[in-house]
Amino acid sequence: MTIQIPATDLVILAGGQARRMNGMNKLLQQFDDQIQLSKICQKFKSEVQSIWVNSHRDSSIYKQIEPNVYCYSDDQTGFLGPLMGMKSAWSYLQSDYALFIPCDVTYIPNQVLIKLHRALLKNPQALVAYVAINGDALYPFCLLKKESLPILQQQINTNKLSLRDCFKQLHAQSASFKKQSLFCHSINSLDELQQYKQMKAFHQMFTAH
User: Fold this and answer.
1) Whose CA is closest to 192, among 41, 26, 79?
2) Are 61 and 28 in contact (CB under 8 A)?
3) Number of domains within the chain
4) CATH code, 189
5) Considering the domain boundaries, does residue 2 fall inside one?
6) Residue-wise pLDDT tens digits, 77-100
């Protein structure tokens, strides 16, 4: 079915401490041949109203790389995870829909935004739709409706910070994607980054022959 995508803002979740990356800012790394910030912005800039980065640091560097991005920090300090980044977004965003994407994602499926909007339409009660890649749920890669805010706030107030548990209350839908030869859908440690680059180089060498 053809749907007109409602106005949607993009939020890149980069508010963590990156402890397993020795504090390295993953959004400024090159996992592939582009800096993560540029890769994500270029993928979505024609589809969204505005692009935000949820981060507590480096906002001037983000602006140098992508002058049109906006930045915001979590409403509360203490690194409370992606749920806090999502709740805080609604203090800033103008649109009723937000597409959240983790800063360390390696694979961005084609037509992901429209497929998430379609998934939301499957259930009138659904306030969130998330991406599943090769059967793995990638909860921080999701489309959220502004109406979800009271439930996000309630979960945070009671210190229940699990996205999976919160999304159950939001009648979550999923949009499934397949990707062959995908080593990992996001990079969580320096080891994973090293392995990802090695696997990618091996795959390119293998497909070149």
Assistant:
1) 26
2) yes
3) 1
4) 3.90.550.10
5) no
6) 776 789 999 999 999 999 999 999
Structure tokens at 88: 């805080």
Give residue for tokens 């107030």.
157
Residue corresponding to tokens 């009138």: 124
Please report the pLDDT score of residue 147 as a whole number. Answer: 98
pLDDT on residue 3: 67
Q: Which residues contact 46 (CB under 8 A, 6 or more apart)?
A: none
What is the C-alpha to C-alpha distance for residues 96 and 189, in angstroms, rounded to an integer? Answer: 34
Containing structural domain, residue 13: 8-208
- Number of residues that make up the chain: 209
What is the residue type of 118?
Answer: R
H runs (alpha helix) in 45-111: 59-65, 82-89
Is the pLDDT confidence value at 146 over 90? yes
Closest alpha carbon to 143 in 163, 170, 116, 114 = 116
